[in-house]
Design brief:
Elements lengths: L17 E3 L2 H11 L2 E2 L1 H6 L6 E2 L11 E2 L2 E5 L11 H14 L11 E5 L9 E6 L15 E8 L7 E3 L10 E3 L6 H18 L2 H4 L2 E6 L8 H11 L1 E2 L29 E3 L14 H16 L3 H9 L1
Bound molecules: flavin-adenine dinucleotide.
Length: 309
């Protein structure tokens, strides 16, 4: 282990197993720094190869969404509720009665839609009663609503690899976002649907007009595609960089054990072979619960399945 502040190295001995649970970006980093990863890449950085695992750091996946914004007729959005007297009121209401605005997770509603007639939902909507920006983009001014379609099964893949053998250096990261046209097309379908929802009679009494991608209803698909490419953003669901599988290239086996070495399991979203079609927190907790069962030897079925593979 390395102390981030002092840079001091320390060694910890383990009797049973190491459970690596650093998330989809740091887990492959720790594996590679430990000599488990693509052989050529490790050698490039002078790291002794413990096990050649070509898929470590590959297969990166994430959910992306893009906002469709509507201006509300009245000042009814969340804007301004986090400052001044209003913030104080919400704080007091929560403290005393555990009710009010602070019970909200802000993503007030959502839904799943099969936009491509493939037989199961391929778009998830996150709907927020406020105009949201992004980490590098301020929200649009004023009161409004954001309807955010997000694709559920991205085709694009990215990767994370080492910048250097120094653990304190950041990774080289390429998300691969929107590399595949199919992902752009999914978001364009989602945006079209969100624009339709914004103009639905049920919202007409609340929504004055669309702000973005365009006030006019009739715009070209090419304009929607340009909007998607400019405004799509992560939903923060990184996964897939140490994928689980029964094939030889998989990084971990179905019991989450790192292949090619003894005594290491991975327990985080990096083991997902493909992203789940929805939010990733609960599935990651499920992976952790399964991991706990495997460690305790409580899963006889999985043991049998593994023997059959
Ligand atoms: C802003 C944001 C909002 C989200 N909202 C939702 C949501 O609404 N619903 C939902 O389902 N999911 C949501 N997610 C996704 C969800 O949080 C993740 O899918 C889930 O936390 C993944 O769990 P994990 O164990 O793979 O990684 P993480 O939760 O990232 O856990 C990894 C841990 O390892 C630690 N770590 C990393 N490197 C090291 C190191 N070298 N040494 C020691 N510790 C290390 C990290 O600090 C972290 O605590 C959100 C994510 C973000 C970032």
């Amino acid at each position: 282990m390395i102390d981030r502040k002092t840079g001091a190295l320390s060694q910890i001995s383990v009797c049973e197993e190491v459970i690596l649970s650093a998330g989809a970006l740091s887990t492959p980093k720790i594996l590679m720094l430990s000599g488990i990863g693509p052989k050529d890449h490790l050698q490039e950085h002078g790291i002794p190869v413990l096990h050649d695992a070509p898929q470590v750091g590959k297969n990166y996946q994430d959910h992306l969404e893009v906002s469709v914004y509507g201006r509300t007729k009245d000042p009814i959005s969340l804007l301004g509720n986090d400052t001044g007297l209003r913030a104080l009121k919400h704080g007091i209401q929560w403290t005393l009665w555990k009710t009010g605005l602070l019970t909200s997770n802000v993503v007030e509603s959502g839904g799943f839609v099969d936009s491509s007639n493939c037989g199961r939902p391929d778009i998830q909507f996150h709907v927020l009663p406020t105009l949201v920006g992004d980490v590098d983009r301020e929200p649009v001014d004023g009161h409004g609503v954001s309807i955010n379609p997000c694709f559920l099964r991205p085709k694009s893949r990215g990767f994370a690899k080492l910048r250097s053998p120094n653990p304190l250096d950041s990774m080289v990261f390429e998300s691969g976002a929107l590399k595949e046209q199919e992902d752009v097309d999914s978001l364009v379908r989602g945006v079209k649907l969100a624009r339709k929802i914004l103009r639905a009679p049920a919202l007409a009494k609340l929504v004055e007009h669309e702000l973005l991608p365009a006030r006019n209803e009739d715009i070209l698909d090419t304009e929607l595609e340009a909007y998607v490419r400019n405004y799509a953003k992560t939903v923060y669901h990184p996964a897939g960089t140490c994928r689980m599988g029964s094939d030889t290239d998989a990084v971990v086996d179905p019991m989450l054990k790192v292949k090619g070495v003894d005594g290491v399991r991975i327990c985080d979203a990096s083991v997902m072979p493909t992203l789940v079609s929805g939010n990733t927190n609960a599935p990651t907790i499920m992976i952790a619960e399964r991991c706990a069962e495997f460690i305790l030897g409580l899963d006889a079925c999985a043991n049998q399945r593994l023997e059959m593979v």
